[in-house]
Specification:
It is built from 22 helices and eleven strands. Helix content is 52%, strand content 11%. A hairpin with a 4-residue loop joins strand 6 (370-371) and strand 7 (376-377). The longest helix is centred in the first third of the chain and has 21 residues, at 135-155. By secondary structure, it is an alpha+beta fold.
């Protein structure tokens, strides 16, 4: 196996040969692709750093190109008159690092694009760990990432991608990849996988012609007759009798399509937006197959809500100012009850005790009896009133988090931002929707439906990107009515 130092020489050979003819560089490019992924992770890291250092942007050449243009023209009019293709070409050469032609040559050969996707995944890991001892190298690596990302955006434009439905007739390697890449709701057994690919489910993937057996994005869809409020109903095993094993479900009677899991499979394609177009393409395919479908919604996780709420509660306990007014997460009758129950009128003390309750095993156990469809507890025991108040508190706090918490004016939550940017609306919050350990740790079991109204998608998308306004349903708006005042 070639060492990373040998591959460092191969990179230089590819750049030198491509200056004469790209065809001359192809054998060396093939060799690089064959050897790159055989290197240990630490050796790939050193190789990427060396490519950046040896063949990065030559700032002196860049400076001289700019300086030459500035000194050869007295003013803007002279510059416009003298500007020619040759001028543009010189400036373009000065702006491009040598590794640009190396990337281009890799993309010409078999497995080249796949190698570049894996190389960028390694590059992103290097940037995540930071090069604290070498600030100049870190900046150069950021430039390399920016350049490679933009090249991948072009090569992976949606017009160049293939959309496929995955079922039991699909190639085994693709079925295995579907199970392997599921990160939202883990596929643990063959039965789980059978359910995901069953007659009442649809699974679609994007692939690229240069990576035919590597899914880029995977979308799981459930066909239902209502807007689902519980993830367990979508991913659990079918309960069938012996006589029902071969029963064919009549999917033509389904009126709803629920997108319950979407996975970006290639870390190297981070920030290359493919999920948006996959959802819209799948909607078109579903309508062709099942014209009776009337509505399209997601059942989505709410990552980091618990972490965010714990921080807000800590700020309130310490009596620090914050835009989030915790008192408005309660109705007045709930506040009155809780003050009496915990025997305190001090809100900081009250919220501290509430935090203890919502993080207790007792409350978590009580949620097992929560009916997500009725939005109420099945068993009304002695703690019913307390638990109902806690559910109301968490639901309103989560509504604030999704709608009001912002980053640069856009939704702070990454999943919310993704779907609203696609033109969806926040449709409904569902308490108790994900009672798995992960669902509890990330969002106190809450999940959210985003609604895709096909007639409104483009308008909602433009409105969000230009005016930063989030579209919500009447159902969801009731959760934020307490916050609709001048002082949130």
């Amino acid at each position: 196996m070639s060492s990373w130092k040998n591959l460092r020489t191969t990179v230089k050979d590819i750049i030198d040969l491509s200056a004469k003819s790209a065809t001359l560089a192809d054998p060396k490019a093939n060799l690089f692709c064959q050897q790159f992924l055989k290197q240990a992770p630490n050796e790939r890291t050193e190789l990427i750093k060396s490519i950046c250092s040896d063949h990065g942007l030559k700032t002196d050449r860049f400076y001289h190109s700019i300086n030459f243009l500035a000194n050869s023209n007295k003013n803007l009019d002279d510059f416009k008159k003298s500007f020619r293709l040759s001028t543009y070409d010189k400036l373009n050469i000065g702006l491009k690092p040598e590794y640009y032609s190396f990337f281009q040559n890799l993309a010409r050969v078999k497995d080249g694009v796949n190698t570049l996707v894996k190389l960028r995944a390694d590059l992103l890991k290097i940037l995540e760990n930071k090069c604290e001892s070498n600030g100049k190298l870190e900046e150069d690596l950021k430039i390399m990432n920016y350049i490679l990302k933009n090249m991948l955006v072009l090569w992976f434009s949606t017009g160049l991608l293939n959309i496929q439905r995955i079922d039991w007739k699909s190639p085994t390697i693709l079925v295995e990849r579907v199970a392997q890449y599921e990160s939202v709701h883990q596929i643990k057994t063959l039965t789980d996988l059978k359910n995901r690919l069953g007659s009442m489910r649809r699974c679609f993937i994007y692939t690229h012609s240069t990576m035919p057996y590597e899914p880029l994005v995977i979308l799981h869809i459930a066909l239902t007759n209502s807007v689902s409020s519980n993830i367990n109903e979508l991913i659990k095993r079918y309960k069938t009798t012996i006589n029902e094993d071969k029963k064919e479900f009549d999917v033509t009677k389904c009126s709803n399509a629920i997108f319950y899991s979407i996975n970006s499979c290639q870390k190297g394609l981070q920030q290359v937006d493919l999920g948006n177009s996959l959802i819209k393409s799948c909607v078109r395919l579903l309508l062709e197959e099942l014209p009776n479908l009337k509505s399209f919604h997601t059942l989505s996780p709410i990552p980091k809500f618990k972490e965010w709420l714990d921080l807000k509660i800590a700020l309130r306990i310490e009596k620090k100012n914050d835009i989030f007014n915790l008192e408005k997460c309660f109705r007045q009758d709930e506040l009155d009850f809780l003050r009496e129950y915990f025997r305190t009128d001090d809100f900081a003390q009250l919220i501290q005790r509430i935090k203890g309750c919502i993080n207790s095993s007792k409350f978590k156990k009580a949620i097992e009896n929560f009916d997500t469809e009725k939005n109420d507890f099945l068993v009304k025991d002695n703690d019913f009133k307390l638990n109902s108040a806690l559910v109301g508190f968490l639901t309103r706090a989560c509504s604030f988090y999704l709608f009001y918490e912002k980053k640069n004016g856009y939704a702070f939550n990454s999943v919310t931002n993704f779907h609203i940017k696609n033109g969806a609306q926040i449709y409904r919050l569902n308490f108790g929707a994900d009672q798995s350990e992960n669902g509890w740790k990330s969002s106190y079991s809450l999940m959210v439906n985003y609604g895709y109204n096909l007639d409104d998608l483009d308008y909602n998308c433009v409105n969000y990107l230009t005016s930063k306004q989030i579209k919500v349903s009447d159902i969801f708006e009731k959760n934020i009515s307490n916050f609709n005042s001048s002082k949130i």
